[in-house]
Amino acid sequence: MGAILNPLYNLVSGVIVLIHKALTPVFGKDSGVTWALSIMGLVVLIRIVLIPLFVKQIKSQRALTALQPQMKAIQAKYKDDRQKQSEEMMKLYKEHKTNPLASCFPILAQAPIFFALFTVLNGIAKDVPHGYLKGEYLTSAAQAKFFGASISETFLGSSDTTVKIVTVALIFIMSATTFTTQRQLMVKGMPKMDSSNNMMLQQQKIMLYVFPLIFAISGVNFPVGVLIYWSTTNFWTWGQQFYVIKRNPTPGSPAYEELQHKKAHKAKQDSKNSSGSVIDGTNPEEANELNGEVKGQRKQPKKKKKR
Fold this sequence. Notes:
Strand content: under 5%
Shape: globular
Helix content: over 70%
Order of helices and strands: HHHHHHHEEHHHHH
Structural class: mainly alpha
Distance between the termini: 124 Å
Number of helices: 12
Strand order of the largest sheet: 1-2
Number of strands: 2
């Protein structure tokens, strides 16, 4: 088991130590800010690496949306045979190379990193080195404070009131950002679907309430550093999803309809502007000048010829 986990320990601790070295001249070696930002930097690097998975997640969700009519037909045809219905559904997914669980891929991909970080930060509290976090770095991390709470402390493992307040606040942020991210997807990013016997919608509803609840319950066992990590990655997910929903929404979703409405309105305004910009092949400024000359021009009186 150690042969599998040791490379992850080295990766996680190595990234944290490298970022810590870079930030030390700015905030100080033993500063909680330095260690907190090092953990946040780890999040940024991991999420950049996971962007291809995020793209795969979006494509899979949109493919499932396109398959909704066929899925409903299968559900209606085999409504009395659950096993056959599941077989036909799996066959449909395979034919179109999609996966209803693709929305979980980014979370599952982070699970090994999360476990490694959990072990590394637990090692700080127990003075057990993992990877590159050893010696002076282990001592420094053990002394680091985040709003007065050691980054290696947990809610259940400490009797310090400050630690409990900080961990509760971070657990709330972690759970709330998980809920709002999923709700943002359901309200703005998903097409309107019939809720009756809809597998995809039911899955999203389960994720909406189950994941925040899991984080809230399990968060009492997480070190402060892990709570910082997970809260940061949730903020990243929310921002990344907001950008995609705003710029490239799923067809049929409320965000897509809103974007199409804006485009139609803009096109209407542009057509109005363009229709008034050409008068007999003349641009507006030239037309105004010509009109002004015509309106403001006085007729010169004719001179009488001398006899």
